[in-house]
Specification:
Blueprint (H helix, E strand, L loop, with lengths): L1 H24 L9 E8 L15 E9 L6 E3 L6 E4 L3 E5 L5 E4 L5 E2 L5 E2 L5 E5 L13 E2 L15 E9 L17 E8 L5 E12 L2 E8 L10 E4 L15 E4 L7 E7 L4 E3 L4 E7 L7 E6 L4 E6 L4 E7 L1 E3 L7 E3 L3 E3 L8 E3 L8 E4 L1 E3 L5 H33 L3
Parallel strand pairs: 11-17, 11-18
Antiparallel strand pairs: 1-2, 3-28, 4-27, 5-6, 5-9, 5-23, 6-25, 7-8, 9-10, 9-22, 11-19, 12-13, 13-14, 14-15, 16-17, 20-21, 21-22, 23-26, 24-25
Length: 404
């Protein structure tokens, strides 16, 4: 029996050394979770065992469990590197259609704009609108708009916030007269092809709390335009009864191509302070090429373009399991679902018990290298001790055989 005990100890110690060696080998593997061998005693079935005289026949490795503790997060600066801070796994669809789960966020873009892993698995996520609002709750492979430019958008609205000087004299009421164009501002709008349409506004005080607004399109003389009128209340705010007509713009390429743009002066004021413009904006833009990508803590992927625009292009999904110990590990830092793990529970980062994402960073292996080296020495001693039991039993048997 001592041979059996020693042999089981050698086998179990060797298995333990295999596990420790695997941990040490993957001390620098992104997203790797360390494992440990868990042992159990072996006893032979016997009717005498109930009397407490069963000495046992050795040891076995009951299971190799994984430790899903959080690894350190290291900043890399790569926009497509993503770390999970908290619970959850990335969900990927492998080339053969199998679903796998990983903590390794080293993603790449293929030629079709798909976010893939080093093994070719496609990252799964949710579709969103341009503002990042989720459009569905079924995960799909994430594809980014890398194939072409974002098209131009024609301007539809102009918004301005400014203060007109309440102490300014009425036009033609003083000598010398206030020059036309003293109070003016300008910006560029865009036509349907993304061509710039210069737009100017000139303000001329015609009565107390009343101003005429002259406009200029494509460099035309604003004095030749038909003005519209804005009025202010006694507290210096724009009179709610003021009606501002839309401004008709012309394309620089074809003056016959005209389009209307709404004008919003609602936040403008008339106070006893110098004239000043605090905000001037419009909603059109020229076409642009993709320049960079960003990923928020909530997993929303934002595409940034050369025209200064940003658009959401999807949201990374995370998956968790009731029993993560039931997941089956596979090569490449992946796990697969099993009956023991339960069904995957999907959601967006930060929802429920799911962790948040950190873009431009990776989660390090959670292997404690110092601890593993100590464990290796302990396993080596156990191996040597089990070998010694076999050697001792062999010496005893030899003594018995040599008796005369």
């Amino acid at each position: 029996m001592a041979f059996q005990q020693g042999l089981s100890g050698l086998n179990s110690s060797a298995r333990n050394l295999d596990v420790i060696g695997h941990n040490i080998a993957n001390a620098n593997t992104v997203g790797m979770k360390s494992s440990r061998a868990e042992f159990g005693e072996l006893y032979a079935s016997s009717i005498n065992s109930a009397g407490g005289i069963n000495a046992g026949i050795g040891v076995t490795v009951s299971t190799v469990s994984q430790l899903f503790t959080q690894g350190n997060i290291t900043v890399t600066g790569n926009d497509l590197d993503v770390a999970i801070n908290g619970n959850g796994f990335f969900e990927t669809t492998m080339p053969d259609g199998a679903m796998t789960y990983s903590r390794a966020g080293m993603f790449k873009l293929d030629r079709d704009g798909n976010l893939i892993t080093n093994q070719g698995g496609q990252l799964m996520g949710y579709p969103t609108d341009n503002d990042g609002v989720r459009l569905g709750f079924e995960s799909v492979p994430l594809t980014l708009p890398t194939g072409g430019a974002v098209p131009a958008k024609q301007s539809t609205a102009i918004s301005a916030e400014f203060n007109l000087d309440a102490s300014a004299p009425v036009f033609n009421a003083v000598v010398p007269n206030t020059p036309f164009g003293t109070y003016a501002t300008s910006l560029n709008a865009f036509d349907a092809q993304g061509l710039e349409v210069p737009v100017g506004f000139v303000f001329q005080k015609t009565a107390n709390n009343t101003w005429d607004v002259y406009t200029s399109v494509n460099g035309a003389d604003p004095a030749l335009s038909v003005p519209f009128q804005i009025t202010f209340t006694a507290d210096g705010k724009l009179d709610p009864a003021t009606v501002i007509p839309p401004l008709q713009l012309q394309s620089p390429n074809d003056p016959a191509e005209v389009f209307d743009v709404a004008i919003d002066f609602n936040e403008s004021t008339q106070f006893g302070a110098d004239f000043g413009v605090t905000n001037l904006s419009q909603d059109g833009y020229r076409p642009g090429e993709l320049t960079s990508l960003g990923i928020s803590d909530a997993g929303v992927i934002t595409a940034r373009y050369s025209n200064g625009q940003s658009q959401a292009a999807g949201q990374i999904a995370l998956v968790n399991f009731r029993n993560v110990q039931g997941l089956s590990p596979s090569s490449g830092g992946n796990w697969t679902q099993t009956y023991a793990s339960g069904e995957p529970v999907r959601g967006a980062p930060g929802e429920g018990k799911l962790g948040y994402l950190r873009s431009g960073a990776l989660e390090d292996s959670n292997v404690d290298l110092t601890g593993e080296l100590v464990n290796m020495m302990t396993a080596q001693r156990a191996y040597q001790a089990n070998a010694q039991t076999i050697k001792t039993q062999d010496q005893i048997l030899s003594t018995l055989l040599n008796m005369r």
